[in-house]
Amino acid sequence: MGKTKLGISIGFLGAALYFIGLFNFLALIALAGYILIFEKNEWLKRSAVKAIVIVIGFALVSVLINLSNDILGILSIPLSLFKTSFRFSWPLGIDSIALNALNIIEKLLLLVLGLKAFNQGSLTIDPIDKVVDKIFNN
User: Fold this and answer.
1) Is the pLDDT of residue 118 over 90?
2) Which residue has the higher pLDDT, 23 or 84?
3) Where are the beta strands (DSSP E) in 14-82?
């Protein structure tokens, strides 16, 4: 297993990348930026991009779910003019369930990828890998 310019193993830095993604998005961006600018290892660079794509992808889906709540709230405004108690919303709090499920899936995914990264391994996730491939092929 090779070493990075920081003197630590490539696998350890890759694992740190995913584990940092669990807690702090800005630190993930900073570490991924360092890797993309200064490190030469192709696997490490792909891991940096993959971690960023995962975090941004899950953030975008969360934003869309929250945006749908806002849209339903806007649709409820005209009804309030008629002093009705009816309000448009997702049934059974399914939006909250979806957001919590997304959060759990994201954390588990980053955790598994972080553990596999110690041996410079990865997990094949077709939609994410396609985006990473598209980024590296341009």
Assistant:
1) yes
2) 23
3) none
Query: Is-contact 45 56, C-beta < 8 A?
Result: no
The single residue listed with the structure tokens 């759990």 is 104
Task: Assess contact for 42 and 119: CB atoms under 8 A.
Answer: no
Of 114, 69, 73, whose CA–CA distance to 94 is shortest?
Answer: 69
pLDDT digits (tens, 9 = 90+) for 47-77: 999 999 999 999 999 999 989 888 877 877 7
CA-nearest of 51, 24, 19 to 35 is 51
Nearest to 110 by CA among 99, 125, 130, 96: 125
The SS3 of residue 86 is: coil
In what helix (H) or strand (E) does residue 52 lie, and over which residues does it extend?
Answer: helix 42-80
Tell me what pLDDT residue 78 has. 73
> Between vectors from CA 77 to CA 74 and to CA 81, what angle results, nearest 5°?
170
Residues in the chain, overall count: 138
The span from the CA of 38 to the CA of 87, in Å, is: 53
Q: Which residues contact 38 (CB under 8 A, 6 or more apart)?
A: 5
Is residue 50 within 8 A of residue 113, CB to CB? The reply is yes
Q: What is the DSSP letter of 9?
A: B
